Amino acid sequence: MPEPLEPIDESFDSVLALVAHPDDLEYGTAAAIARWTAQGKRVVYGLATSGEAGIDGLDPEQCGPLREAEERAGAAIVGVDVVEFYGFPDGVVEYGLPLRRAFAEAIRRHRPDVVVTSSWREFWGPGNPNQADHIAVGRAALDATRDAANRWVFRDLGLEPWKAKHMFVAAGPNARHGVDVTATFDLGVASLEAHAEYLRGLVDNPMSDPREFLESTGRPTGALLGAKYGVAFEVIDL
After folding, report:
1. Taking residues 54-71, what's their average pLDDT?
2. What is the C-alpha to C-alpha distance for residues 57 and 8, in angstroms, rounded to an integer?
3. What is the mean pLDDT of the segment spanning 78-103?
4. Which of 39, 65, 121, 210 lies 20 to 30 Å from 201 when distance is taken between CA atoms?
């Protein structure tokens, strides 16, 4: 049996979620975001790319706007009405100063208590390698939270520094905290279902069935006591 997850302290008011692609948040985290927006917390999405390389049978010029629209629709279902796209190229995102600068600018502008991102670890779990964009974006999000707090870094932004209190890292091997999403699980499923064209392009892939996939990955198996469904995070205090 896994070690029990510690419930996340939810005494925060605002969240900025920084991820690589449309659908990254919807594969689990969106159910937690639905819980938080229902509590009155302000949540903003910031996406490095528009996911334009994500559908094999669709040219990027068509795919990017379509996936942006699907992401906005999915975000609205869980109570998020601000979704930003930073224009980095899907599939070949590079860790570096431009990415850190874009994220630091967003952090200083939105001034969140919590920054959410996805894992930058090399593997999701044994034998399951992470994707290059996720690694670059997650690491840049971590570094940008520190950049944003240092007034002498990216001075040209013309924004006052901002220090977030915590970072929540989703879908990583070091998750020790959890959120009970039993009450908002169906909203999380609906948020992923909003990515209809993307899901249609997943042939013979277990991730193509939103409910089945989220049920299989969201069952806490006793690790989050009292929860039917949970979302696990690595919590980093900043």
Report:
1. 96
2. 40
3. 98
4. 121
- Percent pLDDT > 90 in the chain is 84
What is the dihedral sign for C-alpha 74, 188, 60, 116? positive
How far is the C-alpha of 214 from the C-alpha of 227, rounded, in Å? Answer: 14
The predicted model scores a pTM of 0.95
User: What are the phi and psi torsion angles at 213 (to 5°)?
Assistant: -65, -45
The type of residue at 8 is: I
Res. 92 pLDDT band, cuts 50 70 90: very high
pLDDT over threshold 80, residue 203: no
